[in-house]
Amino acid sequence: MKKIVTLLATSLLAAVSMNAQSFQSALFLDGYRLGYRYNPALQNENSFLSVGQLESQTRNNVGAASFLYPRGEELVTALHSSVPAQEFLGSLKDNNTMGSSLNYSLFSYGWRKGASYQTAEVGVRAAYKTNVPKDIFSILKLGTGETNYDLGGLGLNGNLMVELAYGYSHKLADWVSVGARAKLLLGINSLDYTVTRMDVYMAEDKYKLDLEARLDLTSRLSKIHADKEGYLDLSKLSQKDRWKLPSGVGLAVDLGAVFTPVEGLTMSVSLLDLGGVFWYFGNAGKSQGSVTFSGMDSLTMEDIREGNFRSRFDDELSALLSSLKIKELKSRTSLEMIPFHVNGGIRYDLPFYRALSIGATGNYLHMSGFTYAEGRGALAWNPRKWLGITLNGGVGTYGPVWGAALNAAVWKFRLTLGYCDGFGGTIPYTSTPLKPNNKTVTLGLTFDL
Amino acid sequence: MKFRYFLWLGLALVAACSRPEYDISDGVNTEVTLFQDELSVPIGGLGPFTLGSVFDLLDEEGIDVISELLKVAPDGSVYVEEKGNIFKISAYELENRLDDPAVPQSWNAGYCSTFIGGASEILYFLGFGFVDQHLEITMENPFTRAIPVTSGAATYVLAEESGEKEVPAEGLGQFTIPAYADTEMLVQPDFSGYPKARLTGIKMEDLTLDLPAHPASCLRNELGNLFLSLDYHYVSRVTLSGNFEIPFENYPIGGIDIPIGRYKLKKCELSMEFESTFPMQIEVKDLKVLLPETEWADPDEPLIDENVKIVTGFIIEGGSEEKPAVSAVTLSIEALEGTIPDIPGLLLNLNVKAQPGLEAVPLSTWQGIRVKSSSARLTGGITIPKE
């Protein structure tokens, strides 16, 4: 039981350390060369070569402080008797979600040609999302005060892709630029395990579970073979029959426009990652069924006398758990949208001191079953071509957020550091957030040509 | 200069993020208490615990008193059986007792009686009753001649609550034992007119036999049966009488060792629905948790853990196979302070007696008690200690 609890909490928090992307400070740092990733209409003065940029973004609506509680000298878990149920469950949402994405630009190149600016990029991207319904924690903490529980929505999914992108931006007039990026996505691996329905009835007379779940897993690494009864058996992993080609192929586009209606005022709007991937899931299956446990009806006196109670209980439990087994399906294909962003921003360089800018940004993220939105006010200082600094603060779906970014150049090398986070702190020596938050880390190095 | 301010501000923000009270490097107390409000668990059915399985258990334990007294028919019915002689004499002894064996004569055997009640008498005093009493009186005759018999007065002795009484034994006053009789049926009296009486004996006064001359010379086979006899075979199904009652007062049950202390339970309520086809009422008057034997001052004086309260006071009603009795009972175990400790033993106070108001139901090995359904309700949570 303790392992299950740990697994549930960890599944929500483990990926926090993975951190993840949409670098809104790009609008405020003059020397930042990969602004086209924020808005494909943004142009650089120079051509450049990037030797790597990491953008990692994590968004979770529940933090570690919901699962860990300081009690005197020690730290206890949410299920410790000293933690009131109201305090623990009150800190959770109906659906406790963690979404994370990681964009890693391995190589990119940008060059100017007249009024246009073009970019080419090779990168990898990963996305991960997990969702645990509150009712699971409610059962564990409180017990069966209620009788009906809806645990549908429990799930875990993620994918890993290689991205080949070409971007083109054109200055239509002095006051407007438009741009687009086309991306070819090659899917490496993808996992989607979703419990679409899990109705649990728990009462004195019986427990009843109605379950419907599906598993879609690519088979590039291994093929999961089925047992004699046709259920996927994780112990039967093998290289035989694995899918050796890319497991997914997809396309996506970024669209953007930048307006400069008056000198010093910049308005940006962009739509990123509109598209999807056509996946081939070599490992696919589903669980479906209803199972009722009314106790051990056939327990006999002999069972008790011969000490068979435990083995009989194990048999009943096995029968119960067998309903959760995943029946193998023939391979499945599926077109899946990738998470997309809508960004808007406005920047105004103060007329009395052009190096100082103020502005605001807004961002909306949409993943399957998960959305996030935030708005920030920003202050930027770009005193030299080799230095830019920006600070921002605002409010997102999960509460207040803040951020800071720096772009600094030494000779032709430009280093970019960005950090956005929520408030509430982290666990020492880790980056695990204590409160629901939105964290973005950006780290990149470019070379001006 | 201005850059330095930004740098300090950034560092301050990052430092402010870390909350030392959440430092997990020293470990986290992993003790958890699940289901803190309440947990309802269906446990299910159990049994049945039949009279037959109790007999088997007693046999395995070497307790054969009951199994020797009681017998079980192939259909499972439980009965007592007794066999014996009312009168028995060998041909040679008979000839020796005659004054003049050379002439045919009437020989008076005098007063003959038999006591029926070895097993049934013991069972009667234990509180068992008897129904469907069946008596067969048979005859054995080794002679080639029929033997006429007369009896001055023949009676059956019946025991009732009010005392013993004798009723005329029809068919035993005058009869003839046929030549060569071999387990020849004489009478099968009907005792249905005495439903509450128990047959305890047969009496025959002035038993007189009309014998031929030299009876020993009339033997059909000198190497066969040599006895002239009147035999009885008594069979009766067993019930529980209204007097059946076995109290278990302060009966200690040790060596249970239920290690539940580590789970820190506060209260556990067991709800059970019993179905009984056993004509016996079980009243659980009281149940107490014993302290470990190491804490007893006197090994014969069990000490009770006063901190654990078990609420009982329930009755499991008895029934029959035709009309099973259903009883819903609840048993709760609660720690008055703290949590329920390990349970090393129990002190039992219960009373088992015949189900009041129930007609005499013959016992059968198929009768028994089963837990039709059961569930548990735990209050206060289950603690799983640190690993």
Q: Could you say which overall geometry of chain A the principal axes of the C-alpha atoms support?
A: elongated
Rg result of chain A: 26 Å
Low-confidence stretches of chain B: none
Mean pLDDT of chain A: 87
Q: CATH top level of chain A?
A: Mainly Beta
Which descriptors would you attach to this protein?
heterodimer, A: 449 residues, mainly beta, 14-stranded antiparallel beta barrel, two-stranded antiparallel ribbon, B: 387 residues, 6-stranded antiparallel beta sheet, 5 helices, 46% strand
Can you describe this structure?
- The complex is a heterodimer of chains A (449) and B (387).
- By secondary structure, chain A is mainly β.
- Chain A has one domain (2-448): Porin (Beta Barrel).
- Chain A contains five helices and 23 strands.
- Chain A has helices at 2-13, 85-90, 134-142, 301-305, 309-321, and strands at residues 48-60, 68-71, 74-77, 95-113, 116-133, 148-150, 155-173, 176-202, 207-217, 223-226, 232-238, 248-259, 265-281, 283-293, 327-329, 332-337, 340-349, 356-367, 370-384, 387-396, 399-410, 413-422, 437-448.
- In chain A, the strands form three sheets. A 14-stranded antiparallel β-barrel of chain A has the order 1-4-5-7-8-12-13-17-18-19-20-21-22-23. A two-stranded antiparallel sheet of chain A has the order 2-3. A two-stranded antiparallel sheet of chain A has the order 10-11.
- In chain A, strand 12 (248-259) and strand 13 (265-281) form a beta hairpin.
- The relative contact order of chain A is 0.18.
- Mean pLDDT of chain A is 87; it is low at 4-21.
- With 387 residues, chain B is mainly β.
- Chain B has two domains: 32-61 and 242-359 and 364-384, no CATH class; 78-240.
- Helices cover 12% and strands 46% of the residues of chain B.
- Chain B has helices at residues 2-17, 51-60, 65-69, 91-97, 118-126; strands spanning 32-34, 38-42, 46-50, 71-72, 78-90, 105-115, 128-140, 147-150, 153-160, 163-168, 174-177, 182-187, 198-211, 227-240, 245-253, 267-276, 280-289, 308-311, 314-316, 325-335, 346-354, 368-379, 382-384.
- In chain B, the strands form five sheets. In chain B, strands 2, 3, 16, 18, 20 and 22 form a six-stranded antiparallel β-sheet that branches. In chain B, strands 6, 8, 9, 10, 11 and 13 form a six-stranded antiparallel β-sheet that branches. Chain B has a five-stranded antiparallel β-sheet with strand order 4-5-14-7-12.
- In chain B, a hairpin with a 2-residue loop joins strand 9 and strand 10.
- Chain B starts with a helix and ends with a strand.
- The relative contact order of chain B is 0.20.
